[in-house]
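If I may wish for something, please walk me through the protein I am sending here so I can picture the backbone:
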Amino acid sequence: MERRDDAVLCQHLVRAGAVPLGELVACAEAQRALREAGRPVPPLDRLLLEGGLLPQAQIAAHRGAAEAAAAAAAAAPQRRRRRAGSSSGRHLAASDAGDGVRPGARRGCEEVGEPVAPGGQGAGGGPRGPPTRPRGAGEGLPRPP
């Protein structure tokens, strides 16, 4: 459709089943051909009336219903879709999907021993072997040479 209001009316007519889809496609093609020829494009109302597809009273009623539905849709708040989280069932539990830290994994000179506690964020592991430096506030800092 060449006009926004024609597109709204066309959608309403399709949903209502008032005009066969092939006839609406023919109206749209007629509008496109007139535009490409540089001639004025008549509204869908006139094409429906001239083609004998609907009487004027029904066209006016459908146009009013289509505009009311479009206004209601524009005024309705848009629902935002929630991102799939861990409760959506899409993600596997920590016991089913490995978290990458298993007993025997090494980081530097430390080795992960037995699992400490399973949880929703994965299993944690305690270190095995002698600590190379005291644990505390500087945990994330690089090690001195």
The helical segments are 4-16, 21-36, 44-50, 56-75.
